[in-house]
Write a structure and sequence with these properties.
This is Phage holin family protein. It comes from Microbacterium schleiferi. Keywords: Membrane, Transmembrane, Transmembrane helix. The chain crosses the membrane at residues 35-56, 63-85, 97-123. It is globular and about 55 Å long. The chain contains four helices and two strands; from the N terminus they run H-E-H-H-E-H. Strands 1-2 form a two-stranded antiparallel sheet. Helix 1 (2-23) crosses helix 2, helix 2 crosses helix 3 and helix 3 (70-84) crosses helix 4 (96-133). The protein is mostly helical.
Length: 134
């Protein structure tokens, strides 16, 4: 079950990053270096899973008003770190301010939706497999 959840989280991170690439002219995934993209997705997913609880704890202690935006804040921090890694396969360019504002929102929203919808796909497959076994 843990592996399925981890796979869903990684897949949702990939979908979120791809959505940002498709929707934002300043957000670029280097598709020629597919290994860089895989690395970026894995690093992003790990950072998200570590940063969200940590930022929530810090915000709860120091700035409770930020608790509602923890997902977007942790997404922004994870994107900054991934974009700074030299061969990560993700570049954020012009228009810089607009891209840095919209990229975390798009990635967070799409990742949240994918995390919610992907389990339904896996559950549907399992149900269909069990029905076909009978």
């Amino acid at each position: 079950m843990f592996l399925i959840r981890a796979l869903i989280f990684v897949l949702s991170a990939a979908v979120g990053l791809i959505a940002a690439d498709l929707l934002l002219p300043g957000f670029r995934i280097d598709w020629a270096d597919w290994w860089g993209f895989v690395l970026a997705v894995l690093i992003f997913a790990v950072l998200q899973s570590v940063l969200s609880p940590w930022i929530a704890t810090v915000a709860k202690r120091n700035a409770p008003a930020l608790l509602g935006g923890i997902g977007i804040i942790s997404t922004l921090v994870a994107l900054v770190i991934v974009a700074l890694i030299p061969r990560s396969g993700i570049r954020i360019g012009e228009p810089i301010v607009l891209t840095w504002i919209l990229a975390p929102v798009i990635v967070w929203l799409v990742t949240a939706l994918a995390t919610w919808l992907l389990p339904m796909v896996f559950i549907k497959k399992k149900v269909e497999e069990r029905r076909s076994e009978k």
